[in-house]
Amino acid sequence: EVTMPRPTRQRVMCVANQKGGVGKTTTTVNLAVALALHGNRVLVVDLDPQGNASTGLNVPHHAGVPDVYDCLIDQVPMEEVAQAVEGIPNLYCVPATIDLAGAEIELVSVVARESRLGRAIQAFPMEFDYVFIDCPPSLGLLTVNALCAAQEVLIPIQCEYYALEGLNQLLNNINLVKAHLNPSLDVSTILLTMYDRRTRLADAVEQDVRNHFGEKVLTSVIPRNVRVSEAPSYGQSVMTYDPGSRGATSYFEAAQEIAERGAKIGVGA
Ligand code: ADP
Ligand code: MG
Question: Which listed site, 40, 194, 233, 268, has its alpha carbon 20 to 30 Å from 162?
Answer without folding.
Answer: 233
